[in-house]
Each structure stands twice: as C-alpha cells, then as structure tokens.
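User: Modeling request: complex.
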Amino acid sequence: MRHTQWLPLASARENRAERSGGAAQIVSARVQTTKERHLSMVDETFDRPSLVFDERLSLVAGMLQRFTWERDELSPSRTRIQLGGQITIDDAAALWKRISETLTHIDEALQGIEVELSQVERIDGACMALLLQFRTDLGQRKVRCEFAGGSKEVRRIVDLYGGRKKIRQTRAKRRPVSAVAQVGDATLNVIEEAKQILDFLGRLVVSTLHVARHPKSLNLRDVGLTIERAGADAAPIVLLINFLIGFVMAYQSAAQLKQFGASIYVADLVGVSMTRELGPLMMAIIICGRSGAAFAAELGTMKVSEEVDALRTLGFLPLPFLVIPRMVGLILLAPVLVLMADAIGICGGALVASLTLDITPVSFLIQLQSAVKASDIVSGIIKGMVFCSAIALISCQQGLATSGGAEGVGRRTTSAVVGILFTLILLDALFTVLLGVFGI
Amino acid sequence: MTKPMVTVRELSIGYGKTTLLRDASFEVERGDIFVILGGSGCGKSTLLRHLIGLDTPISGEISIAGIGTPRLEGAAPRFGVMFQSGALFGSMTVAENVAFALQEWTHLPPEAIDAIVRAKLALVGLEGAAGKQPAELSGGMRKRAAIARAMAFEPNLIFLDEPSAGLDPVSAVELDELILALNRNLGLTVVMVTHELESIFKVGKHCIMLDRETRSIIARGEPQRIRSESDDPRVRRFFNRETSVPQWQ
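Assistant: Request completed. Predicted assembly structure:
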C-alpha cells in the first residue's frame, strides 16, 4: 500500500525558482505530473466540508515545500519513506511537521523505517539534523531507522553528520526540580553566601591587622584612586539626589503640617530625617550603584583574566593590595559625602518651606538648630561609614569569588548590588533599633 | 650532584570532588626545558597552578629548589610565571607591569628600576612598547611582556602556561626562540605547559605526558624518543595527530 503525503505545491516551487532566477528549468516531467496531483489535492482540501477554514489553510500551507515525502508500507513491520527534491532550512519547518506526524502515528508492529534519499537533489545540515533526531526518536521507540541511497553530495552530508553511525543512547532527561526543592536550594545558597562573606570578613580582619603593623604595605595609590572615583566623581549625583529628597519630603509634609498650624516643624522633619536616616542611606545607595558595582566588576575581571593570580605570584596579597585600599577609601570619604548629603537635603527642605509655607531661611535655620542635635549628625556619619564598609566588603568579596568568564562577572556584579542593598536596609534597621535602645 | 630544581612526590591534585592526577612523581633538573603535555582537560594547567602554589594539592609534596611548597604572598617572587593570557595588569603600562615587583620588593631608586625595565623589555623585543597599555598590544606582544615581567626579578626558574596558544605561527616561533635563548644564555630552568607539537619538539628537552582517563603520567623522557619509541597507543595518537573522529571527506 502506498500513501503519498504532503506533496509539494508546484506553483510555490515555480515562484521560488523564478525568484532565484533561471532555476525553473529544474522542474522535470515528473514534477509536472505531480503538479496536477497537487492542484487536485488543494482543491480536495478546500472542498472537504469537515474542515474549518483555518484547518484547510494550514493543510495547504504545509504543502508549500520543495521536497517530497512519500511513505510506502512494505509490510506491517517495515516502512520506507522516500524523500525527494531539495530539503534545505527553508523547508525545515515542513520537514519537522512530517517527522512529528510520523512519530505520533507509529504502529506497535513497526520495527524498521528506511529513509530513502536517492531522489534527494540537495539536503543541508539543518534538515539532516532533523532526520537524525527522527532516527534517535525512533530508536527510543525500538524502531530501527536507516538512511539509504543518495547522490555523492547527499551521502557526504549524511556521513558528516554521523548518519551512518549507530545511535548513541541519550541520557535520561533531568527530572524537573520541585518548587520546594528550589526554595530549599535557594536558602542553602543564601546561607553559603553568608558564610563566604563571614569567612572573607575574617580574612580581611587578619589582613587589616597586617597592614596596621606594616603601614607601608598599604596600596596608597588605590586609596587615592578610590576617593577620587567614588567620592569626587560621585559628589554631583549625591548632591542632586539628596536635594530632591529633602525637597520632596518637605513638599509632602508641608500640606499636612499647615493644616495643624505646625508649618515651622517642617524644619524638624527634614533636619532629623536627613541627618539620621536619609542622608547616609541615599549616599550609600548611590555609592552602591556606582562604586559597589564597579568594584565587583573590576575585581571579577581581574580574577577571570588571571591578574589576581599574577599578583599572588609576584608576592602580593590580594586582600591588602586590592580590598583594603578600596575599603579605606570609601570609609574616608563617607563622612564628607554624608555631611554634603545632609546639608543639601536640608537646603531642599528650606527652599520648599520658603516657597510654600512662607518660612524664611533664617526662621528655618533657627528651628533646625533646636531640632537637630550633634548626636543626630554623628550617628548619621557613623552609619555612613558602616554602610561604606559593607559596600566595600560585599562588592570585593563577590568580585574575588568570580569564575566563569564574562558571564560570571555579570552574575557576581548583580549579586553584589543586590546583596549590598539588602545589607544596607538590614543595617539601617539594626541601627535604628540600637540607637533607640540607647536613647541616642 | 646538584639538587633538582623542581621535585614532585606522589602528588594528587584535583578540584571539588574531581581528581585530575593521582600519585604523580617527577623531577625537573636545573637548566632543563620541561614540558607538561597532554590532551585538553587532562589537568596540565591545574598541575602548573599547584606547582606555583596557587592551589593546594589533595596529597603529595612539591619542592622548588629544595624548599617545600612555596608560600607565594608576602615575599619577593622566587620564580617567574607567565599565564596563558599574559595576565598583565590592565590599569598599568607595560613598563609599570615589569617594574611592579621591583618597586615593592627592592630598595632600588626609580632610575635604576627604569634601567632594569628597559633592559628586560629589550630582552623580549618590546623596547618601543614601554608606555603602551596591555590592551594596545597584540597577543604575542602581551605574552612577551608577561615574560619580561616574570624575568624582572632575575629568577632561575620560570613557569609558562601555554605560551604559544592563540598565536599566529610566526609569533609562536618567535616565542619559542625567545624561550630557547633565555634557557641557553641565562641557564634558566623552564617548566611549560603546552599541547603544541611544534613547540614541544623545538624547545622541549624533557617532558611528561598526562592522561585524562587514567589520571596519571603515561610517558616521560625526551619528546623525540617518546615519539619514536613509545608503544602506548594514547601517546602515539597524540604525537602522530591521530584523531578518533571520522576523517572528513
């Protein structure tokens, strides 16, 4: 019994041949006969009342191909698929459809399929790969599949892609990991990360003691460079952001305070919030985004390009040489940036107070003096220094833990920024509780 | 009789739970050019990392010039290392890279360091590249600059990781000749990792071949003799460039 399935639509072939210029001559007498059959098939397809329009359209679209796929059932246990024409990547979708259909309709009695290639004019690597996958899938269903025949060129492609080799047993697919297991893995990863950071902190303390005993071993060049890049270069953005924060905070609270006739207390609100909380926090968030990410990427790149190893072979300890200068630089510039952030934030608040609440700058300053204590400013500065230490610690640890090339650098940089932001919020909460407990 | 420059006794190395080499023992004589060779993934570069003290072995002993596993940091370098990529410090010029260890570990005035740096760069044929950044150099120049940096401290032992990998044939030959010249004229002991047959036969005096399957040394001796005398099919396959993949028509 012989079935002919999904034969090519000759008009499509002619159109393609026309586009490619002159190739129309390849249409042989056999194709001409086939053309008539195609046209009748298309007509039949459109005339079948059982199909809705979409189904008819998709059936006809499946015929837009330049190859033939003819299936002969030689016996209940043996089938031959005769391929013909040109089978290239343009036809890969149609070929894959034939393969999928064949795989879904395999009789239990079937033991072997012979894929006959003698009529194939041309086949490319992509379609050969699909045929190999067909053979592998058949092999998994205990159906033997062989490629037979073919011109010299076609056989070359078959040989190149291993079409004559025995099928390798493919590994069992990984079982999907359950959501609970994923949550468990993620938790273990977080714990492992925390352990690594603590381990790094311990080694950093030892290195700091070493540097304290031998101050000359401190890489002063990098301290200066860090202060310049993370401090001077970051100052404009720190100033702008904190000005806007002070401005917005005063603006939002102005209307509320006005209702109670307590407009003057906008100075208290802005002053205390900026000095105790927002000044150091916003400064740290900006430093995290600019310098934390830069440190992680810089050290990560050094790690993957073996520069850190080279440093070690020249007798340098990576922690005192690379990490401590960055940490010292950030800690030294923290008070300056925090004070700048406090001042500019308060200026933003004073501007709003002056514009919307008719509070003169002098009145604002007098009220501010009575509201903000030295301890507020000092606690903000200490907070800023602790935040900067955390930024340097986490970003450098992540950078030095990098492996796996450029992708690893990107992954560690992202981890560094996320880890720092989480740590900053955690430290801020801790500070708030501790300062509250001690009444500072 | 002088002590060997490098002595390795029953060394087992690996990473994580993977063992790459088991109970390996070998010696590198002074003035030798010793090649560690083998196919991809057999642990050549990992062995080199252990020899220079970057990684800790699972078991076994490594001694360099009669002193046990070296502690790298906190002391002047006892040997030079050239990494596969060159690993020059990207933020420094070529001259600063070469001068780096000298500035840290000697009390020489800057003028003296400059003179040494110029001489080292001339030695590797990079006189005109002193002020360039590593990113401005070609692959071959980067590797020569890395050799100059490794030679800055006048070591009598140098480790080279895949010196000719990724270089065009002319640059690879130039680098081989540089290695031979350093060995011949300075008596420098060279331990290098490579799988480039041309380099092995041109510069290698002795070699060991590692095997990924057995995780052991499967051949040792002079490269030419191993090629002509070894009966081991794995060794013959490596030296005769026989492939296990089909011959493309």
